[in-house]
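Project outcomes to date are best conveyed with an example. Our students and postdoctoral researchers have been running inverse folding experiments weekly, and each run begins with a structure described purely in tokens. The record below, which covers 200 residues, was selected by the lab manager from last quarter's runs and is presented without edits.
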């Protein structure tokens, strides 16, 4: 197994790697294709990041293209201007996805915003303490256009549309529309404007 390390202050082109480790102030102009990728520091990727296995995004990271891997973990502050595709997505930092997150399991314990989240199970509980650290108004860093999944458990976020079978909505949520075909639980204090379907 070859480890490819890119560090320091540098500008590099894209390429194919086995195990890629980036740590520094780096601009990558081109697509990254790897078996696994660990990106940390202050990094801008002008292209896609794809890995057959895991991708870890730390530090302050911007990716202009798609991010695709089996397992994607965000520990830093990350902006992705295209789609995110994975079996499992875990956000413990701050992630902004300008398009869709698509994964079997999406877990959020930091701050997560996206145009859409689509998956089998979505469990997102945004950290309200971190919102205050970043000096944003309530829900600005935890705003999602649509969530569509079989199992949905959310708190601390603002969502336009929630579409699921079994749905749990926490007390610190603002939801415009809920379409539920199974069980629906809405905590006291949550703001839910419309409920459609025949939830139990």
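After processing, the design step wrote out the following sequence:
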């Amino acid at each position: 197994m070859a480890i490819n390390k890119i560090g320091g202050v540098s500008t590099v082109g894209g390429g194919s790697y086995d195990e890629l480790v980036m740590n520094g102030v780096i601009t990558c102009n081109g697509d990254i294709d790897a078996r696994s990728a660990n990106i940390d520091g202050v990094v801008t990727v002008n292209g896609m990041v794809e890995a057959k296995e895991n991708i870890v995004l730390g530090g302050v990271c911007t990716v202009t293209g798609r991010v695709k891997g089996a397992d994607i973990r965000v520990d830093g502050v990350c902006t992705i201007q295209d789609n995110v595709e994975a079996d499992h997505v875990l956000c413990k930092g701050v992630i902004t996805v300008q398009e869709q997150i698509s994964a079997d399991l999406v877990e959020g314990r930091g701050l997560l915003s996206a145009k859409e989240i689509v998956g089998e199970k979505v469990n997102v509980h945004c950290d309200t303490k971190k919102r205050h650290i970043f000096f944003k108004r309530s829900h600005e860093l935890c705003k999602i256009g649509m969530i569509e999944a079989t199992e949905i458990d959310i708190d601390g976020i603002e969502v336009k549309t929630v579409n699921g079978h079994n749905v749990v909505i926490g007390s610190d949520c603002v939801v415009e529309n809920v379409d539920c075909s199974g069980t629906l639980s809405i905590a006291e204090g949550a703001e839910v404007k419309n409920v459609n379907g025949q939830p139990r």
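The first strand starts at residue 3 and ends at 46. The two ends are 52 Å apart (CA to CA). The training component of this project remains on track.
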